[in-house]
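DM from R.C. (forwarded with permission)

"hey, sorry to bug you on a friday — could you get me a structure for this? deadline for the figure draft is monday and I only need the backbone to look sensible"
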Amino acid sequence: MGSTIYLALGLYPVLDYISGTSSEVPSVDSRRPFDIIVHLHGFLVPIVILVLFWKIFTSPIDSFLLLGVVSVGFSSGASGIITAHELGHRKPKSFSWWLARLDLFCVNYLHFTVEHNHTHHKHWARPIDPTSAPVGRNVYYHFLRTIPLQIMGAYKARPKDVRLSFLAEAILLISLFLISEIIFIAFIGQAIIAIFLLEFVNYLQHYGLSRGMDERANASHAWESRHRWSRWTLMELPLHPSHHLKSSAPYQELSVHDESPQLPNGYYVMFWCALIPPLFHYRMKKAMQ
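My reply, with the result:
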C-alpha cells in the first residue's frame, strides 16, 4: 500500500531531476491510445479506494492503515484529479465528463469542475483568482485560503450545480460514517491529501504571476516546466500555459511556449521545495529574474 508514497516522494523526484528537460512535442496520429490511458486512470481511482476499504474490513487496525491512507491519497491526487482535470474539459454530460465527476466525488471535491472551468479559466493570474498566489504566499496559507474562495466562486457561477454536489457529498459522507467510523476517517484522510496535491499544483502554476483585469492573457501568465519525468507521468500537466490558451485541446496536443516563465525543476522536485517556504520563495525569485 505504500508504493505510491515511495515513488511520488522518493524515486520520482530523483528521476525528475536527472532526466533533464525536453522541448519536443511528439506528433499525434491518433487520439485513441491517449484516451485509453486517461480513462484507465479515471477508472482506477474508485477501485483503489474500494481496495482501501476492503483492507480496513479484513485487516487489523495498525500503522500500515495510515500508510495505506496516505498512499491512496497520493494516488487519488496524482492520478485521479489530473484525470478529472483533463476529462472535465470534455463535452458536458459526456461519458468522459461523468468519469471526471466520479473521480472528484472520490475526493469530495465536486465543485472543482465548475470553479476551474468557469472561474479560474476566466480570471487566471488576476488578483481575483483564488487559485493564483502572489509572491511571498506560502503553500500552507494558500491551501487554507483558496478552498473556501473557490467554493464561493463555484457557487456564484453555478449555484444549482454546487448545491447538488454538496448534497451528494453529504450523503456519501453520512453513509460512510454509518458503515464504519474508520472507513469515514480513512476516506476523509485520503481526500485531504489529494486536495492538497491539487492546490499545490494550482499554487505552483501561477505563483507570483499577475495580469490586470483588462489585460489579455498570454503564455507569460503561467509557469511552464519542460522536465521530462513530470511531463511523461503527469499527462503534460507542466505545459500549463498551452492548456490555458486552448483549454479544449487534449493533453497530448499541448505545446511549449518560449515566452512562458520556466520552473527551476519539475513538479516532483518543486513539491519538496514548496514544503519549505523560504527555499521555495528563494528559488522562484531567481527564476523570475
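R.C.: lifesaver. The mean pLDDT is 95.
me: no worries. Residues 32-58 form the longest helix (27 residues).
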